[in-house]
Each structure stands twice: as structure tokens, then as C-alpha cells.
Design goal:
single chain, 203 residues, alpha+beta, six-stranded antiparallel β-sheet, three-stranded mixed β-sheet, 6 helices, 9 strands, 29% helix, 28% strand
């Protein structure tokens, strides 16, 4: 719900694909951005008293916990950046990055179309697809014309995860769009995700 963000300037920034502003980091929580782009955007990592130091199965720590000098950093899997005011801006899930762009930078521009209810980037295979629930309009057309996405695919309903019923279910979306393409992409994504565990001898 973009209306929950508040000010009109913030809404306009979201519609331009600049990300979702969430405000300043609370006192006591440490945040760092492992930048992967020139503008400083990258994976958000957090540390502090609210961050769990480890999981019951230590093997699960390998991919998401980083221990440095007594500090436990947690890899959130979310991309973001700090703006000029030092406020955190969310850009979407790292594993759904499409080229040099993160999901919110593309999906929000599609959601600016009045006929689009939901939108989700699918980076599988050799191209970038944008699945939209609803009727694509000028915003979606501009994404294709500008080369940000290769194809806009209208779907009757985007699959949502069973736990939250609000987040797009990535694997289910891939199976819906192109089963063969999904298997190739998911196999590669799984290998990348499990690489730290295998390197530790726990895989």
C-alpha cells in the first residue's frame, strides 16, 4: 500500500523507481550496505541486540551470519541504500536482482499504471520478465522501451508465499511463467546459495 508511506514527494520517488523509504535506523542497531553498485546500493546487513546470534542448526549460520571481531552481522537478503539524509531505502530482494536493477526499482514503475494491481520481476534465463497482475499501461511499456525489462507478462494472479500471503513466491512464479526456464535458473540460484555451506564442509 503506497498510501502508507505518507508524503507525496515520497510517493513520487517510489513511482520513479527510487525505492521504498523506511526512515532512519533505530538507536542501538548497526546497519551496513555491502555495496554492489556505484551508488552504494547492495545487500543490507544488520547487527545489534535484536539480531539472533545463531540458529539451532549451525549449518544454517554459514550463509547468513558473518562474525567479525565479536560482532555478528546478519545478511538480510534485502537490497537497499542510504540516501543523502542517512535514511534507509529498500530496493527489494537481492536474489531477484535483474541485471543492475533491484526489484522495487522496476516493479514500482509498473505499479504506477492504474490497471496494475501487483508486479514482480522474474530474472530467470537470459532475459528479464515482468509479471503483472492486471492490465499493463504506459509505465510497463516504458520499461520495455527503455530496455529495463525484456517482456511484460500479464497473469491472472501472482502466486504469493503461503506464510505471509503478501510476498511473491519466486519459485512458483518461475514455474508459472516458464517451467523449463525456471528449472535452469533455480538450479543456478540454489548452487550459489549453498556454496558457502559446501565450502565449510556442511553441505
Amino acid at each position: 500500500d503506497l498510501g502508507a508511506v505518507g508524503s507525496e514527494p515520497a510517493l513520487e520517488a517510489i513511482r520513479r523507481g527510487e525505492g521504498l523509504p523506511v526512515g532512519r535506523v533505530v538507536e542501538g542497531l548497526r546497519v551496513r550496505i555491502m555495496a554492489g553498485r556505484a551508488d552504494g546500493a547492495g545487500e543490507i546487513q544488520v547487527a545489534g541486540p535484536w539480531v539472533v546470534g545463531g540458529y539451532l542448526d549451525a549449518a544454517d549460520d554459514v550463509a547468513v551470519k558473518i562474525r567479525e571481531g565479536g560482532i555478528v552481522w546478519h545478511r538480510t537478503g534485502d537490497a537497499g541504500r542510504l540516501d543523502e539524509r542517512g535514511e534507509l531505502v529498500l530496493l527489494g530482494r537481492v536474489d531477484r536482482r535483474a541485471g543492475d536493477r533491484f526489484p522495487f526499482e522496476l516493479e514500482a514503475r509498473a505499479l504506477a499504471d492504474a490497471g496494475v494491481k501487483r508486479a514482480a520481476v522474474w530474472p530467470g534465463g537470459s532475459g528479464v520478465w515482468l509479471a503483472v497482475e492486471g492490465r499493463p499501461g504506459p509505465g510497463c511499456a516504458a520499461l520495455v522501451a527503455g530496455g529495463a525489462v525484456d517482456r511484460v507478462v500479464p497473469v491472472e494472479r501472482l502466486p504469493l508465499d503461503a506464510r505471509h500471503r503478501s510476498k511473491v513466491d519466486g519459485p512458483a512464479l518461475g514455474r508459472l511463467l516458464d517451467p523449463g526456464r525456471w528449472r535452469r535458473w533455480w538450479s543456478g540460484a540454489t548452487r550459489a546459495r549453498d556454496a558457502p555451506r559446501r565450502a565449510s564442509g556442511r553441505g
